[in-house]
Protein backbone atom coordinates (compact mmCIF):
# COMPACT_ATOMS: atom_id res chain seq x y z
CA UNK A 1 0.00 0.00 0.00
CA UNK A 2 1.34 3.48 -0.80
CA UNK A 3 2.11 5.73 2.10
CA UNK A 4 -0.47 8.38 2.87
CA UNK A 5 -0.34 11.59 4.82
CA UNK A 6 -2.72 12.65 7.57
CA UNK A 7 -5.13 14.31 5.11
CA UNK A 8 -5.79 11.12 3.14
CA UNK A 9 -3.70 12.31 0.19
CA UNK A 10 -1.16 10.05 -1.43
CA UNK A 11 1.69 11.09 -3.71
CA UNK A 12 2.03 9.57 -7.14
CA UNK A 13 5.22 8.90 -9.09
CA UNK A 14 4.76 12.09 -11.12
CA UNK A 15 4.89 14.36 -8.09
CA UNK A 16 1.21 15.33 -7.95
CA UNK A 17 -1.05 14.31 -5.09
CA UNK A 18 -4.46 12.75 -5.64
CA UNK A 19 -7.42 12.98 -3.31
CA UNK A 20 -8.56 9.60 -2.02
CA UNK A 21 -12.06 10.55 -0.94
CA UNK A 22 -14.52 7.70 -1.57
CA UNK A 23 -15.74 8.55 -5.05
CA UNK A 24 -19.15 6.94 -4.56
CA UNK A 25 -19.93 9.14 -1.56
CA UNK A 26 -18.87 12.21 -3.51
CA UNK A 27 -21.06 11.18 -6.45
CA UNK A 28 -24.07 10.60 -4.19
CA UNK A 29 -23.49 13.96 -2.49
CA UNK A 30 -23.55 15.80 -5.78
CA UNK A 31 -26.58 13.80 -6.86
CA UNK A 32 -28.45 14.94 -3.76
CA UNK A 33 -27.38 18.53 -4.37
CA UNK A 34 -28.64 18.29 -7.97
CA UNK A 35 -32.06 17.23 -6.71
CA UNK A 36 -32.17 20.02 -4.13
CA UNK A 37 -31.05 22.76 -6.51
CA UNK A 38 -33.69 21.78 -9.13
CA UNK A 39 -36.51 21.33 -6.63
CA UNK A 40 -39.42 20.68 -7.22
CA UNK A 41 -38.41 18.87 -10.45
CA UNK A 42 -38.02 15.51 -8.71
CA UNK A 43 -41.72 15.61 -7.83
CA UNK A 44 -42.72 16.01 -11.49
CA UNK A 45 -40.19 13.91 -13.38
CA UNK A 46 -42.75 12.46 -15.79
CA UNK A 47 -44.82 15.59 -16.47
CA UNK A 48 -42.63 18.72 -16.29
CA UNK A 49 -39.24 19.90 -17.58
CA UNK A 50 -37.14 22.90 -16.47
CA UNK A 51 -37.50 26.19 -18.32
CA UNK A 52 -34.36 27.95 -17.15
CA UNK A 53 -34.49 31.49 -18.50
CA UNK A 54 -36.83 30.50 -21.35
CA UNK A 55 -40.24 32.17 -21.19
CA UNK A 56 -41.94 29.69 -23.54
CA UNK A 57 -41.57 25.92 -23.88
CA UNK A 58 -40.32 25.91 -27.49
CA UNK A 59 -36.69 24.90 -26.80
CA UNK A 60 -37.48 22.37 -24.02
CA UNK A 61 -40.07 20.73 -26.29
CA UNK A 62 -37.52 20.57 -29.12
CA UNK A 63 -35.05 18.83 -26.82
CA UNK A 64 -37.64 16.40 -25.49
CA UNK A 65 -38.34 15.46 -29.10
CA UNK A 66 -34.56 15.21 -29.74
CA UNK A 67 -34.15 12.77 -26.84
CA UNK A 68 -36.97 10.66 -28.26
CA UNK A 69 -35.53 10.66 -31.79
CA UNK A 70 -32.10 9.58 -30.53
CA UNK A 71 -33.66 6.78 -28.49
CA UNK A 72 -35.80 5.71 -31.43
CA UNK A 73 -32.87 5.61 -33.86
CA UNK A 74 -30.61 3.84 -31.35
CA UNK A 75 -33.22 1.09 -31.04
CA UNK A 76 -33.13 0.81 -34.86
CA UNK A 77 -29.31 0.67 -35.06
CA UNK A 78 -29.17 4.35 -36.12
CA UNK A 79 -30.81 3.73 -39.50
CA UNK A 80 -31.79 6.97 -41.31
CA UNK A 81 -30.53 8.90 -38.29
CA UNK A 82 -30.06 12.22 -40.04
CA UNK A 83 -33.40 12.05 -41.89
CA UNK A 84 -35.50 13.25 -38.97
CA UNK A 85 -39.27 13.54 -39.58
CA UNK A 86 -39.30 17.36 -39.80
CA UNK A 87 -39.21 19.77 -42.75
CA UNK A 88 -40.37 16.96 -45.05
CA UNK A 89 -39.64 16.13 -47.81
CA UNK A 90 -36.14 17.58 -47.11
CA UNK A 91 -33.37 15.11 -46.18
CA UNK A 92 -30.70 15.26 -43.45
CA UNK A 93 -32.86 17.62 -41.41
CA UNK A 94 -31.44 16.44 -38.07
CA UNK A 95 -28.22 18.24 -39.02
CA UNK A 96 -30.01 21.57 -38.74
CA UNK A 97 -29.75 21.60 -34.93
CA UNK A 98 -27.84 19.96 -32.07
CA UNK A 99 -28.23 16.20 -32.53
CA UNK A 100 -27.01 15.26 -29.01
CA UNK A 101 -26.55 11.54 -29.80
CA UNK A 102 -25.22 10.89 -26.28
CA UNK A 103 -28.76 11.34 -24.95
CA UNK A 104 -29.31 7.82 -26.28
CA UNK A 105 -27.76 6.73 -22.96
CA UNK A 106 -31.28 7.05 -21.54
CA UNK A 107 -32.69 5.37 -24.66
CA UNK A 108 -34.34 2.39 -22.93
CA UNK A 109 -36.42 4.82 -20.86
CA UNK A 110 -37.22 7.07 -23.84
CA UNK A 111 -38.25 4.34 -26.27
CA UNK A 112 -41.93 5.07 -25.65
CA UNK A 113 -43.28 8.63 -25.98
CA UNK A 114 -44.98 8.44 -22.60
CA UNK A 115 -41.66 7.98 -20.79
CA UNK A 116 -39.57 10.53 -22.68
CA UNK A 117 -40.15 13.27 -20.11
CA UNK A 118 -38.83 11.04 -17.32
CA UNK A 119 -35.78 10.10 -19.41
CA UNK A 120 -35.13 13.76 -20.26
CA UNK A 121 -35.16 14.79 -16.61
CA UNK A 122 -33.04 11.83 -15.57
CA UNK A 123 -30.43 12.81 -18.16
CA UNK A 124 -30.47 16.40 -16.89
CA UNK A 125 -30.03 15.36 -13.24
CA UNK A 126 -27.25 12.96 -14.19
CA UNK A 127 -25.52 15.77 -16.08
CA UNK A 128 -25.65 18.10 -13.06
CA UNK A 129 -24.35 15.32 -10.81
CA UNK A 130 -21.47 14.52 -13.14
CA UNK A 131 -20.71 18.24 -13.48
CA UNK A 132 -19.96 18.23 -9.77
CA UNK A 133 -18.08 14.94 -9.82
CA UNK A 134 -15.86 15.95 -12.76
CA UNK A 135 -15.21 19.31 -11.14
CA UNK A 136 -14.14 17.49 -8.00
CA UNK A 137 -11.71 15.35 -10.00
CA UNK A 138 -10.21 18.33 -11.80
CA UNK A 139 -9.90 20.77 -8.92
CA UNK A 140 -8.72 18.13 -6.43
CA UNK A 141 -5.91 17.36 -8.84
CA UNK A 142 -4.86 20.93 -9.59
CA UNK A 143 -5.04 22.19 -5.99
CA UNK A 144 -3.95 18.96 -4.23
CA UNK A 145 -6.72 19.72 -1.72
CA UNK A 146 -9.82 17.64 -1.15
CA UNK A 147 -11.68 20.58 0.42
CA UNK A 148 -10.94 22.90 -2.51
CA UNK A 149 -11.83 20.12 -4.94
CA UNK A 150 -15.14 19.40 -3.25
CA UNK A 151 -16.00 23.09 -3.08
CA UNK A 152 -15.10 23.53 -6.75
CA UNK A 153 -17.31 20.56 -7.65
CA UNK A 154 -20.16 22.15 -5.70
CA UNK A 155 -19.76 25.34 -7.73
CA UNK A 156 -19.92 23.24 -10.92
CA UNK A 157 -23.32 21.86 -9.85
CA UNK A 158 -24.47 25.43 -9.18
CA UNK A 159 -22.67 26.98 -12.17
CA UNK A 160 -24.58 30.20 -13.01
CA UNK A 161 -24.37 29.77 -16.78
CA UNK A 162 -25.83 26.26 -16.63
CA UNK A 163 -28.80 27.21 -14.46
CA UNK A 164 -29.47 30.30 -16.52
CA UNK A 165 -29.64 28.01 -19.59
CA UNK A 166 -31.27 25.03 -17.84
CA UNK A 167 -34.03 24.97 -20.45
CA UNK A 168 -31.44 24.31 -23.19
CA UNK A 169 -30.52 20.68 -22.51
CA UNK A 170 -27.30 20.55 -24.54
CA UNK A 171 -25.78 23.36 -22.44
CA UNK A 172 -26.29 21.55 -19.13
CA UNK A 173 -23.58 18.85 -19.30
CA UNK A 174 -20.25 20.63 -18.78
CA UNK A 175 -18.70 17.51 -17.25
CA UNK A 176 -17.22 16.29 -20.57
CA UNK A 177 -15.41 19.64 -20.87
CA UNK A 178 -14.12 19.27 -17.31
CA UNK A 179 -12.89 15.76 -18.12
CA UNK A 180 -11.05 17.15 -21.15
CA UNK A 181 -9.20 19.65 -18.94
CA UNK A 182 -8.58 16.99 -16.28
CA UNK A 183 -7.18 14.56 -18.87
CA UNK A 184 -4.94 17.31 -20.24
CA UNK A 185 -3.54 18.02 -16.77
CA UNK A 186 -2.89 14.33 -16.15
CA UNK A 187 -1.35 13.84 -19.57
CA UNK A 188 0.99 16.82 -19.09
CA UNK A 189 2.53 15.24 -15.98
CA UNK A 190 3.59 11.89 -17.36
CA UNK A 191 2.74 11.97 -21.09
CA UNK A 192 1.05 8.63 -20.56
CA UNK A 193 -0.87 7.04 -23.37
CA UNK A 194 -4.02 6.30 -21.35
CA UNK A 195 -4.53 9.98 -20.52
CA UNK A 196 -4.12 10.93 -24.16
CA UNK A 197 -6.84 8.39 -25.02
CA UNK A 198 -9.10 9.80 -22.30
CA UNK A 199 -8.41 13.30 -23.60
CA UNK A 200 -9.50 12.37 -27.12
CA UNK A 201 -12.57 10.43 -25.99
CA UNK A 202 -13.62 13.19 -23.55
CA UNK A 203 -13.37 15.77 -26.31
CA UNK A 204 -15.49 13.52 -28.54
CA UNK A 205 -18.03 13.16 -25.73
CA UNK A 206 -18.05 16.93 -25.36
CA UNK A 207 -18.74 17.45 -29.06
CA UNK A 208 -21.42 14.76 -29.18
CA UNK A 209 -23.27 16.24 -26.22
CA UNK A 210 -22.91 19.90 -27.26
CA UNK A 211 -21.36 21.01 -30.54
CA UNK A 212 -20.79 24.48 -29.10
CA UNK A 213 -18.69 23.24 -26.19
CA UNK A 214 -16.76 20.84 -28.41
CA UNK A 215 -15.91 23.56 -30.91
CA UNK A 216 -14.97 26.04 -28.19
CA UNK A 217 -12.55 23.56 -26.61
CA UNK A 218 -11.10 22.52 -29.97
CA UNK A 219 -10.23 26.15 -30.68
CA UNK A 220 -9.11 27.28 -27.22
CA UNK A 221 -7.48 24.18 -25.74
CA UNK A 222 -4.20 24.35 -27.74
CA UNK A 223 -3.52 27.83 -26.36
CA UNK A 224 -4.55 26.86 -22.81
CA UNK A 225 -2.33 23.77 -22.95
CA UNK A 226 0.88 25.70 -23.65
CA UNK A 227 1.81 26.33 -19.98
CA UNK A 228 1.38 22.60 -19.28
CA UNK A 229 3.23 21.24 -22.28
CA UNK A 230 5.72 23.99 -23.14
CA UNK A 231 8.68 22.21 -21.59
CA UNK A 232 7.69 18.91 -23.21
CA UNK A 233 7.32 20.03 -26.82
CA UNK A 234 10.65 18.43 -27.67
CA UNK A 235 9.49 15.04 -26.39
CA UNK A 236 8.43 12.54 -29.02
CA UNK A 237 6.03 10.94 -26.55
CA UNK A 238 4.13 14.22 -26.25
CA UNK A 239 3.45 14.41 -29.97
CA UNK A 240 2.59 10.71 -30.19
CA UNK A 241 0.16 11.06 -27.30
CA UNK A 242 -1.42 14.22 -28.69
CA UNK A 243 -1.76 12.62 -32.13
CA UNK A 244 -3.30 9.49 -30.63
CA UNK A 245 -5.85 11.56 -28.73
CA UNK A 246 -6.70 13.48 -31.90
CA UNK A 247 -7.22 10.24 -33.81
CA UNK A 248 -9.54 8.94 -31.10
CA UNK A 249 -11.58 12.15 -31.31
CA UNK A 250 -11.79 12.01 -35.12
CA UNK A 251 -12.66 8.30 -35.13
CA UNK A 252 -15.59 8.81 -32.74
CA UNK A 253 -16.92 12.09 -34.14
CA UNK A 254 -16.21 11.73 -37.85
CA UNK A 255 -19.76 10.53 -38.73
CA UNK A 256 -21.07 13.78 -37.23
CA UNK A 257 -18.33 16.13 -38.40
CA UNK A 258 -18.31 14.82 -41.97
CA UNK A 259 -22.03 15.45 -42.45
CA UNK A 260 -21.76 18.87 -40.80
CA UNK A 261 -18.89 19.89 -43.08
CA UNK A 262 -20.99 18.98 -46.10
CA UNK A 263 -23.88 21.03 -44.74
CA UNK A 264 -21.64 24.03 -43.95
CA UNK A 265 -20.90 24.49 -47.66
CA UNK A 266 -24.46 25.74 -48.08
CA UNK A 267 -24.26 29.53 -47.67
CA UNK A 268 -27.92 29.62 -46.64
CA UNK A 269 -26.88 27.76 -43.48
CA UNK A 270 -24.45 30.37 -42.23
CA UNK A 271 -25.20 33.06 -39.68
CA UNK A 272 -25.57 36.69 -40.60
CA UNK A 273 -23.26 39.26 -39.04
CA UNK A 274 -26.26 40.93 -37.41
CA UNK A 275 -27.31 37.69 -35.71
CA UNK A 276 -23.78 37.02 -34.45
CA UNK A 277 -23.45 40.60 -33.16
CA UNK A 278 -26.76 40.45 -31.27
CA UNK A 279 -25.82 37.16 -29.61
CA UNK A 280 -22.28 38.17 -28.66
CA UNK A 281 -21.38 39.18 -25.13
CA UNK A 282 -20.36 42.63 -23.97
CA UNK A 283 -17.58 43.05 -21.43
CA UNK A 284 -20.07 44.47 -18.92
CA UNK A 285 -22.09 41.23 -19.07
CA UNK A 286 -19.39 39.57 -16.95
CA UNK A 287 -20.33 41.67 -13.94
CA UNK A 288 -24.08 41.22 -14.37
CA UNK A 289 -25.54 39.09 -11.54
CA UNK A 290 -26.45 35.54 -12.46
CA UNK A 291 -30.12 35.98 -11.58
CA UNK A 292 -30.87 38.91 -13.89
CA UNK A 293 -31.58 38.93 -17.59
CA UNK A 294 -33.26 41.13 -20.11
CA UNK A 295 -32.77 43.02 -23.37
CA UNK A 296 -29.80 44.95 -21.97
CA UNK A 297 -27.41 42.00 -22.14
CA UNK A 298 -26.57 38.56 -20.80
CA UNK A 299 -25.95 37.61 -17.14
CA UNK A 300 -22.54 35.99 -17.60
CA UNK A 301 -20.91 36.74 -14.24
CA UNK A 302 -19.52 33.66 -12.47
CA UNK A 303 -20.20 35.60 -9.26
CA UNK A 304 -18.41 38.67 -7.96
CA UNK A 305 -17.15 36.64 -5.00
CA UNK A 306 -15.83 33.95 -7.35
CA UNK A 307 -14.03 36.58 -9.41
CA UNK A 308 -12.51 38.15 -6.29
CA UNK A 309 -11.24 34.79 -5.07
CA UNK A 310 -10.01 33.95 -8.59
CA UNK A 311 -7.92 37.13 -8.67
CA UNK A 312 -6.48 36.24 -5.28
CA UNK A 313 -5.78 32.70 -6.41
CA UNK A 314 -4.04 33.95 -9.56
CA UNK A 315 -1.77 36.31 -7.65
CA UNK A 316 -0.86 33.56 -5.19
CA UNK A 317 -0.19 30.96 -7.87
CA UNK A 318 1.91 33.14 -10.13
CA UNK A 319 4.28 33.60 -7.21
CA UNK A 320 4.31 29.86 -6.48
CA UNK A 321 6.49 27.79 -8.79
CA UNK A 322 4.86 24.41 -8.18
CA UNK A 323 1.38 25.40 -9.40
CA UNK A 324 2.15 28.32 -11.72
CA UNK A 325 1.43 26.25 -14.82
CA UNK A 326 -2.15 25.57 -13.68
CA UNK A 327 -2.71 29.26 -12.99
CA UNK A 328 -1.47 30.15 -16.46
CA UNK A 329 -3.66 27.46 -18.01
CA UNK A 330 -6.82 28.77 -16.35
CA UNK A 331 -5.87 32.41 -17.05
CA UNK A 332 -5.28 31.74 -20.74
CA UNK A 333 -8.50 29.75 -20.98
CA UNK A 334 -10.51 32.50 -19.32
CA UNK A 335 -8.94 35.21 -21.47
CA UNK A 336 -9.35 33.38 -24.76
CA UNK A 337 -12.94 32.34 -23.99
CA UNK A 338 -13.75 35.90 -22.91
CA UNK A 339 -12.52 37.34 -26.21
CA UNK A 340 -14.29 34.63 -28.21
CA UNK A 341 -17.58 35.33 -26.40
CA UNK A 342 -17.38 38.97 -27.54
CA UNK A 343 -17.66 37.78 -31.15
CA UNK A 344 -17.33 40.67 -33.63
CA UNK A 345 -17.73 43.24 -30.82
CA UNK A 346 -13.96 43.39 -30.19
CA UNK A 347 -11.42 44.51 -32.72
CA UNK A 348 -7.74 45.35 -33.09
CA UNK A 349 -7.50 48.71 -34.82
CA UNK A 350 -9.76 48.17 -37.84
CA UNK A 351 -9.49 44.37 -37.81
CA UNK A 352 -12.12 42.04 -36.35
CA UNK A 353 -10.37 38.76 -35.41
CA UNK A 354 -13.65 36.85 -34.96
CA UNK A 355 -14.59 37.37 -38.61
CA UNK A 356 -11.31 35.75 -39.66
CA UNK A 357 -12.34 32.70 -37.66
CA UNK A 358 -15.73 32.74 -39.40
CA UNK A 359 -14.02 32.87 -42.78
CA UNK A 360 -11.25 30.33 -42.31
CA UNK A 361 -12.13 27.94 -39.45
CA UNK A 362 -14.72 25.23 -40.27
CA UNK A 363 -17.74 25.34 -38.01
CA UNK A 364 -17.34 28.88 -36.66
CA UNK A 365 -19.66 30.30 -39.32
CA UNK A 366 -22.41 28.05 -37.91
CA UNK A 367 -22.11 29.51 -34.40
CA UNK A 368 -25.16 31.58 -33.58
CA UNK A 369 -24.36 32.53 -29.97
CA UNK A 370 -20.70 33.35 -29.25
CA UNK A 371 -21.68 34.42 -25.72
CA UNK A 372 -21.93 30.73 -24.80
CA UNK A 373 -18.14 30.60 -24.58
CA UNK A 374 -18.69 32.29 -21.21
CA UNK A 375 -19.13 28.82 -19.73
CA UNK A 376 -15.35 28.30 -20.08
CA UNK A 377 -14.71 31.65 -18.42
CA UNK A 378 -16.79 30.51 -15.45
CA UNK A 379 -15.02 27.13 -15.29
CA UNK A 380 -11.58 28.79 -15.40
CA UNK A 381 -12.59 31.36 -12.77
CA UNK A 382 -13.73 28.50 -10.53
CA UNK A 383 -10.40 26.74 -11.03
CA UNK A 384 -8.51 29.85 -9.92
CA UNK A 385 -10.91 30.38 -7.02
CA UNK A 386 -10.14 26.89 -5.73
CA UNK A 387 -6.51 27.89 -5.22
CA UNK A 388 -7.64 30.67 -2.89
CA UNK A 389 -9.65 28.08 -0.97
CA UNK A 390 -6.61 25.81 -0.79
CA UNK A 391 -4.44 28.70 0.41
CA UNK A 392 -6.87 29.60 3.21
CA UNK A 393 -7.18 25.94 4.20
CA UNK A 394 -3.41 25.62 4.44
CA UNK A 395 -3.12 28.78 6.54
CA UNK A 396 -5.87 27.56 8.87
CA UNK A 397 -3.85 24.40 9.57
CA UNK A 398 -0.25 25.50 9.52
CA UNK A 399 -0.32 29.17 10.56
CA UNK A 400 0.07 30.68 14.00
CA UNK A 401 -3.00 30.44 16.29
CA UNK A 402 -4.33 33.90 15.47
CA UNK A 403 -3.57 33.45 11.79
CA UNK A 404 -5.31 30.07 11.81
CA UNK A 405 -8.45 31.54 13.35
CA UNK A 406 -8.55 34.36 10.82
CA UNK A 407 -7.94 31.98 7.90
CA UNK A 408 -10.65 29.59 9.12
CA UNK A 409 -13.11 32.46 9.45
CA UNK A 410 -12.22 33.84 6.03
CA UNK A 411 -12.59 30.37 4.51
CA UNK A 412 -16.02 29.84 6.04
CA UNK A 413 -17.34 33.31 5.24
CA UNK A 414 -16.05 33.36 1.66
CA UNK A 415 -17.53 29.91 1.01
CA UNK A 416 -20.93 30.95 2.32
CA UNK A 417 -20.87 34.15 0.28
CA UNK A 418 -20.05 32.24 -2.92
CA UNK A 419 -22.85 29.72 -2.36
CA UNK A 420 -25.34 32.44 -1.45
CA UNK A 421 -24.44 34.49 -4.51
CA UNK A 422 -24.60 31.76 -7.16
CA UNK A 423 -27.32 29.53 -5.71
CA UNK A 424 -30.22 29.48 -8.23
CA UNK A 425 -33.31 31.41 -7.21
CA UNK A 426 -35.82 28.68 -7.97
CA UNK A 427 -36.25 26.22 -10.83
CA UNK A 428 -39.23 27.21 -13.03
CA UNK A 429 -40.89 24.25 -14.72
CA UNK A 430 -43.21 23.87 -17.67
CA UNK A 431 -45.76 21.09 -17.97
CA UNK A 432 -45.65 19.05 -21.16
CA UNK A 433 -48.84 18.42 -23.11
CA UNK A 434 -50.77 15.39 -21.90
CA UNK A 435 -50.29 12.11 -23.74
CA UNK A 436 -53.02 11.61 -26.34
CA UNK A 437 -55.82 9.14 -25.73
CA UNK A 438 -57.08 6.54 -28.16
CA UNK A 439 -59.67 8.88 -29.71
CA UNK A 440 -57.31 11.84 -30.10
CA UNK A 441 -56.05 12.92 -33.50
CA UNK A 442 -52.35 11.82 -33.09
CA UNK A 443 -53.35 8.21 -32.48
CA UNK A 444 -55.99 8.33 -35.22
CA UNK A 445 -53.32 9.47 -37.68
CA UNK A 446 -50.95 6.71 -36.54
CA UNK A 447 -53.52 4.03 -37.41
CA UNK A 448 -55.40 5.53 -40.39
CA UNK A 449 -52.72 7.10 -42.57
CA UNK A 450 -49.85 5.65 -44.66
CA UNK A 451 -46.47 5.66 -42.93
CA UNK A 452 -44.90 7.82 -45.67
CA UNK A 453 -47.51 10.59 -45.28
CA UNK A 454 -46.47 14.21 -44.83
CA UNK A 455 -48.48 16.36 -42.42
CA UNK A 456 -48.86 20.13 -42.47
CA UNK A 457 -49.97 21.34 -39.02
CA UNK A 458 -51.61 24.74 -38.61
CA UNK A 459 -51.03 27.46 -37.58
CA UNK A 460 -47.66 28.08 -39.16
CA UNK A 461 -45.22 30.42 -37.37
CA UNK A 462 -45.97 34.06 -38.13
CA UNK A 463 -42.51 35.34 -37.12
CA UNK A 464 -38.99 34.29 -36.22
CA UNK A 465 -39.05 34.30 -32.42
CA UNK A 466 -39.25 31.28 -30.11
CA UNK A 467 -42.75 32.46 -29.14
CA UNK A 468 -43.90 32.10 -32.75
CA UNK A 469 -42.60 28.54 -32.92
CA UNK A 470 -44.14 27.17 -29.73
CA UNK A 471 -47.20 25.67 -31.53
CA UNK A 472 -44.79 24.04 -34.00
CA UNK A 473 -42.77 22.54 -31.13
CA UNK A 474 -46.01 21.16 -29.67
CA UNK A 475 -46.74 19.50 -33.03
CA UNK A 476 -43.25 17.95 -32.97
CA UNK A 477 -44.04 16.64 -29.49
CA UNK A 478 -47.25 14.98 -30.75
CA UNK A 479 -45.37 13.49 -33.71
CA UNK A 480 -43.73 11.09 -31.24
CA UNK A 481 -47.10 9.32 -31.14
CA UNK A 482 -48.29 9.47 -34.75
CA UNK A 483 -44.74 9.02 -36.22
CA UNK A 484 -45.52 10.83 -39.46
CA UNK A 485 -43.28 13.35 -41.21
CA UNK A 486 -44.02 17.02 -40.65
CA UNK A 487 -43.63 19.68 -43.31
CA UNK A 488 -42.75 22.08 -40.49
CA UNK A 489 -40.33 21.96 -37.57
CA UNK A 490 -38.09 23.96 -35.28
CA UNK A 491 -34.29 23.92 -35.37
CA UNK A 492 -31.18 26.06 -35.55
CA UNK A 493 -31.58 26.53 -39.31
CA UNK A 494 -34.67 26.50 -41.54
CA UNK A 495 -34.53 25.08 -45.09
CA UNK A 496 -35.84 27.14 -47.97
CA UNK A 497 -38.83 24.84 -48.81
CA UNK A 498 -40.14 25.29 -45.26
CA UNK A 499 -39.83 29.05 -45.55
CA UNK A 500 -41.90 28.90 -48.72
CA UNK A 501 -44.58 26.76 -47.07
CA UNK A 502 -44.66 29.04 -44.05
CA UNK A 503 -45.00 32.17 -46.18
CA UNK A 504 -47.73 30.57 -48.34
CA UNK A 505 -50.07 29.42 -45.57
CA UNK A 506 -50.08 32.33 -43.15
CA UNK A 507 -53.44 33.23 -41.59
CA UNK A 508 -53.47 36.43 -43.64
CA UNK A 509 -52.72 34.72 -46.96
CA UNK A 510 -55.29 35.25 -49.71
CA UNK A 511 -55.46 32.16 -51.90
CA UNK A 512 -58.22 30.80 -54.07
CA UNK A 513 -59.45 27.23 -53.36
CA UNK A 514 -57.67 26.02 -56.49
CA UNK A 515 -54.42 27.71 -55.46
CA UNK A 516 -54.64 26.15 -52.00
CA UNK A 517 -54.92 22.64 -53.44
CA UNK A 518 -52.17 23.21 -56.01
CA UNK A 519 -49.77 24.64 -53.41
CA UNK A 520 -50.36 21.71 -51.06
CA UNK A 521 -49.76 19.22 -53.85
CA UNK A 522 -46.62 21.09 -54.93
CA UNK A 523 -45.22 20.75 -51.41
CA UNK A 524 -46.19 17.04 -51.28
CA UNK A 525 -48.62 17.51 -48.38
CA UNK A 526 -50.89 14.54 -47.67
CA UNK A 527 -52.79 15.70 -44.59
CA UNK A 528 -53.44 18.99 -42.82
CA UNK A 529 -54.06 19.26 -39.08
CA UNK A 530 -56.06 22.40 -38.38
CA UNK A 531 -57.49 23.87 -35.15
CA UNK A 532 -61.20 24.59 -35.36
CA UNK A 533 -60.45 28.23 -34.54
CA UNK A 534 -58.22 28.68 -37.60
CA UNK A 535 -59.49 30.44 -40.71
CA UNK A 536 -57.89 27.62 -42.70
CA UNK A 537 -60.64 25.19 -41.64
CA UNK A 538 -63.19 26.85 -43.92
CA UNK A 539 -60.64 27.55 -46.65
CA UNK A 540 -59.59 23.91 -46.87
CA UNK A 541 -63.19 22.72 -46.78
CA UNK A 542 -63.97 24.87 -49.82
CA UNK A 543 -61.03 23.58 -51.86
CA UNK A 544 -61.74 20.80 -54.35
CA UNK A 545 -59.84 17.58 -53.74
CA UNK A 546 -59.46 18.30 -49.99
CA UNK A 547 -61.79 16.56 -47.58
CA UNK A 548 -62.30 16.37 -43.84
CA UNK A 549 -61.45 12.86 -42.62
CA UNK A 550 -61.44 13.20 -38.83
CA UNK A 551 -62.56 15.63 -36.12
CA UNK A 552 -61.07 15.52 -32.62
CA UNK A 553 -63.71 17.15 -30.42
CA UNK A 554 -61.58 17.02 -27.25
CA UNK A 555 -58.69 18.97 -28.77
CA UNK A 556 -60.94 20.84 -31.24
CA UNK A 557 -58.77 19.79 -34.18
CA UNK A 558 -59.80 18.81 -37.73
CA UNK A 559 -57.76 16.54 -40.01
CA UNK A 560 -58.02 17.11 -43.79
CA UNK A 561 -56.73 14.83 -46.52
CA UNK A 562 -55.21 16.33 -49.65
CA UNK A 563 -56.21 13.90 -52.40
CA UNK A 564 -54.67 10.42 -52.07
CA UNK A 565 -51.06 9.31 -52.68
CA UNK A 566 -52.10 7.59 -55.93
CA UNK A 567 -53.72 10.78 -57.23
CA UNK A 568 -50.69 13.00 -56.67
CA UNK A 569 -48.93 14.43 -59.68
Describe the SSE topology:
Blueprint: E1 9-11, E2 17-19, H1 23-37, E3 48-50, H2 58-75, H3 107-110, H4 116-143, H5 146-157, H6 160-164, H7 175-190, H8 193-209, H9 211-229, H10 236-264, H11 273-278, H12 304-318, H13 324-341, H14 353-360, H15 374-398, H16 401-422, E4 429-431, H17 441-448, E5 454-457, H18 470-482, E6 485-486, H19 496-504, H20 513-522, E7 527-531, H21 536-542, E8 546-552, E9 557-562
Parallel strand pairs: 5-6, 5-7
Antiparallel strand pairs: 1-2, 3-4, 7-9, 8-9
Description:
The protein is of the alpha/beta class. Helices cover 53% and strands 6% of the residues. The protein is built from 21 helices and 9 strands. The protein has a 5-stranded mixed beta sheet, sandwiched between helices. The protein has a two-stranded antiparallel ribbon with strand order 1-2. Strands 3-4 form a two-stranded antiparallel sheet. The longest helix has 29 residues. The N terminus is likely disordered.
The gist of it:
This protein has 21 helices and nine strands. It has helices spanning 23-37, 58-75, 107-110, 116-143, 146-157, 160-164, 175-190, 193-209, 211-229, 236-264, 273-278, 304-318, 324-341, 353-360, 374-398, 401-422, 441-448, 470-482, 496-504, 513-522, 536-542; strands spanning 9-11, 17-19, 48-50, 429-431, 454-457, 485-486, 527-531, 546-552, 557-562.
Amino acid sequence: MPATDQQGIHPNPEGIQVCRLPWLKVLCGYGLLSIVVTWPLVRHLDTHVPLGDEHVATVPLLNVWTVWWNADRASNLWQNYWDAPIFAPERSTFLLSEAQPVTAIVGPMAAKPGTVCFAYNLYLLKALTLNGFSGWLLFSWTTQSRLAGFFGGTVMVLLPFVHWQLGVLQLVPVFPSLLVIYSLCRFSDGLRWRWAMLLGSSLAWTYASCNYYGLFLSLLLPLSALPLLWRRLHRRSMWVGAGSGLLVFIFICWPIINRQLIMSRDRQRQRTTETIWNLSAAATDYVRPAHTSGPAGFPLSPGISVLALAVGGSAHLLARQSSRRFALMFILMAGAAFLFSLGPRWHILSRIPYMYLVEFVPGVSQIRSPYRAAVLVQIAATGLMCFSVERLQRLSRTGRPRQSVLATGALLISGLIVIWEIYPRGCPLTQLPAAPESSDWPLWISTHTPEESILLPFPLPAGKTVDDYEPTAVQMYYSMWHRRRLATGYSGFFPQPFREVSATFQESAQLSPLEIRDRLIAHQIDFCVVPESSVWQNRLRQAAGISEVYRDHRHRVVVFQVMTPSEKL
